[in-house]
Design goal:
With about 300 residues, the chain is mainly α. The chain has one domain: MetI-like fold (Orthogonal Bundle), CATH 1.10.3720. About 75% of the residues lie in helices and about 0% in strands. It contains 15 helices and two strands. It has a two-stranded antiparallel ribbon. Helix 6 crosses helix 9 and helix 12 runs antiparallel to helix 15. The longest helix has about 35 residues. Pfam families: BPD_transp_1. It is a multi-pass membrane protein. It comes from Paraburkholderia phenazinium. InterPro entries: MetI-like, MetI-like_sf, UgpAE/MalFG_permease.
């Protein structure tokens, strides 16, 4: 009798030993394996450059000779630089005026969200500026602003040196940058409008909501994810603006149109001050990080 029980106990223990892992554990393992390549790429191309830039900002280095530890000297010099405050002020101007892109994109999306003949062609025409490279946009608006033969001269009646006047150059470049940014926000909102619950809108109309009241209380709450993406990407685009400034003004005249991203490039490429350029990059990164964390906290609070 005892032998039979012991003989039966052996296969039971073997079955338990060979039992497959729970389904949730296998799913977690599969998810980690799928995320591993992307995580490695993110670590190599994002995390490592960020950490190396922070470390480099404490050194003086020209890119060729050995590094020399400088402590906080790069940051002290940055805080006493007039160009830094000019670039910071221009970044604030970019940020304020660039935030016109989400509401303008929303207005275009509401106008184009119709089922009429030929609306797809109109949408593609509105979206066309976004697919143009920044260099092409800069060259087009450079010709537009030209005081001798530009289209602006024909409109105004006389030549206006927009890119040659420190008072107008920043605003002229921002206007050129808004041309492709507004269609980008428009596409985000058009995508969000396709996911709106039509039954909720019909119920709101039956309750008497229409016009701005319908937009504010019914449509915009359902477009909150699209608004979040439009605002965050617009702010990041405003803070890292570089290509149009490089093509249209080169940071001039007299550094009047420079921003932090172009100031960083200028110090690294022209003057071989890699450590000082890294300090500018760290300041710009911290500004972006603070804003993105603030926006994420607002989104999480509104969702909960």
């Amino acid at each position: 009798m005892s032998t039979t029980l012991s003989d039966k106990a052996v296969p039971v223990s073997r079955e338990r030993r060979k039992a497959p892992a729970p389904l949730s554990r296998r799913r977690n393992r599969a998810a980690l394996l799928f995320l591993l390549p992307g995580g490695l790429l993110f670590a190599v191309y994002v995390i490592y450059p960020v950490i190396s830039s922070i470390v480099l900002s404490f050194y003086n280095w020209d890119g060729m000779t050995p590094r020399v530890f400088a402590g906080l000297d790069n940051y002290r010099e940055l805080l006493h630089s007039d160009t830094f405050y000019t670039a910071l002020k221009n970044n604030v101007i970019w940020l304020v005026l660039f935030l016109l892109a989400p509401p303008c994109g929303l207005a275009l999306a509401l106008y184009l969200n119709q089922s009429v003949r030929g609306i797809r062609l109109v949408k593609s025409l509105f979206f066309a500026p976004f697919v143009l490279p920044g260099v092409v946009v800069g060259l087009v608006f450079g010709w537009f602003y030209d005081p001798t033969f530009g289209l602006l001269k024909l409109i105004v009646g006389h030549g206006v040196p927009v890119l040659g006047d420190p008072r107008y150059v920043t605003y002229g470049i921002i206007f050129a940058a808004l041309w492709p940014q507004i269609p980008f926000c428009m596409i985000l909102y058009l995508t969000g409008l396709t996911g709106i619950n039509s039954e909720v809108i019909e119920a709101a109309r039956m309750e008497g909501a229409e016009g701005l009241k319908l937009l504010w209380h019914v449509i915009l709450p359902q477009l909150r994810p699209a608004t979040f993406m439009a605002v965050v990407l617009t702010v990041i685009g405003a803070l890292r603006s570089f290509d149009l400034i490089s093509v249209m003004s080169g940071g001039g005249p007299f550094d009047s149109s420079t921003v932090l991203a172009y100031f960083m490039y200028d110090q690294a490429i022209k003057y071989y001050r890699e450590g000082y350029s890294a300090a500018i990059a760290v300041v710009l990164f911290m500004i972006m990080l603070i804003f993105i964390v603030w926006q994420l906290r607002r989104l999480v609070r509104s969702e909960t």
